[in-house]
Amino acid sequence: MKKILVTGGVGQIGSELVMELRRVYGAENVVCGVNRTQPGGRLKESGPWEIVNCTEARQVADVVKKYDIDTIYHLAAILSAVAEAKPNLAWNVNINALYNVLEVAREANCAVFTPSSIGAFGSSTPLDNTPQDTIQRPSTMYGVTKVAGELLCDYYYKRFGVDTRGVRYPGIISNETLPGGGTTDYAVEIYYEAIKQKKYTCNLPAGTFLDMMYMPDALKAAIDLMEADPAKLIHRNAFNVTAMSFDPEIIAAEIKKHIPEFVLDYNVDKVKEGIANSWPNSMDDSAARAEWGWEPSYDLSAMTADMLEVLGKKLK
Ligand code: SER
User: Fold this and answer.
1) How wide is the angle at C-alpha 68 spanned by C-alphas 91 and 147, nearest 5°?
2) Is the beta carbon of 182 within 6 A of some atom in ligand 1?
3) Which residues 6+ apart lie within 8 Å of 23 measured at CB?
4) CATH number, position 204
């Protein structure tokens, strides 16, 4: 059985990935690694957790040794809007911490999953049906760290044989833990506000198309890629994966099918608009489909029905 460490374990993806990995591999085999915020509720009660500040290599090495870890899902990262506001912090967390994790993985012979992002592309990339292998010249600090991270992970695979794998996640929509400071956050907030206020003020303009994915598919992508037969992987870091592409008007129209009185208006954040405009409108994820059988389960309509049902109960 695998022995797994998840860094960023209380983040938007981490808080749900830890629980899914515990279901698949056994609760005692999955360590929830957190920086400062302690896990709460079922995350804390269902299995081990540890303080792991990945910018301190020693802390990563100690936990890997203590639990005899063989697989690291390295999710600790700074998202795009925060990275633009705090580029120094973004470099430290997204690059220096990743370097520490890769070094520990090299010494302890661990496999490493690292999420990249649609942010690894920029405005000189073909933004429609964005190919797996194409121009990557992002203009944001977030994108710079994501491209450098992809290259670093590939380097550790080729040079040292570390089993590194990753996906370029689109915006992830979920109902357990809110994202913190991303450009795609509106697509999460819109569901919360639809339930709470029947109204939402969007910070990206109409017509801004971005790739998106519902959390169950994001978890499936990570686990399936790490379980994939290495002989079939032509790529490693990182695979385009997507489940849907929409703009604010399209998601609002889908919500209105359930909440007819829902109203969408706009107050555009120029920084986020600029970031979003430099990202793909929709990615081609055929390499992931061909090399490890990627296939999403949720489209916009299935996701919206589920989000509104879950949040309707949660926010009552
Ligand atoms: N959801 C991320 C962000 O908006 C994209 O990787 O920063």
Assistant:
1) 25
2) yes
3) none
4) 3.90.25
Residue 267 C-alpha to ligand 1 middle, in angstroms? 19
Q: How far apart are CA 71 and CA 58, in angstroms?
A: 17
Could you tell me if the CB of 118 is within 6 A of ligand 1?
yes
Query: What confidence tens digit (pLDDT) does each residue in 244-274 have?
Result: 999 999 999 999 999 999 999 999 999 999 9
My answer on whether 181 and 115 are in the same domain is: no
Which structural domain range is residue 185 located in? 176-212+244-280+298-314
Same-domain pairing of 103 and 64: yes
Q: What is the CATH number of the domain that holds 110?
A: 3.40.50.720
| Atom of ligand 1 minimally distant from the CA of 185 | 4
Each residue's pLDDT tens digit, 62-75? 999 999 999 999 99
pTM score: 0.97
Number of domains in the chain: 2
